[in-house]
Amino acid sequence: MTAHSSEVNEKASGRLGSLLRPRYLVLVVLLAAVAAFAGVNQVRSSTIPTFSITSVVTDTTVTIQTANFPANQNFVVTMGPFGSKGINGIVVATTNSGAGGSFSATYNIPAQLKGSYQIAVRLQTSHAYPFFAYNWFYNNTTTGGPGTGGIPGYTGIPTFSVSAVDVDKTVSIQTANFPPNQTFTVRMGPMGSRGVNGVVVGTLQSGVGGALKATFNIPPQLQKSYQIAIRTETAHANPFFAYNWFYNNTTGTIPDTGATATPKRRFAYLFPSSTSALVQVRLRSGLSEAQRRQATQLIRDAVAMPEWKPQFGGSYLVTGAPVLVSDLTDVITDQLILLLIGVKLIGDGIAG
Question: Of 2.60.40.1930, 2.60.200.20, 2.60.120.400, 3.30.450.30, which CATH number belongs to 149-250?
Answer without folding.
Answer: 2.60.40.1930
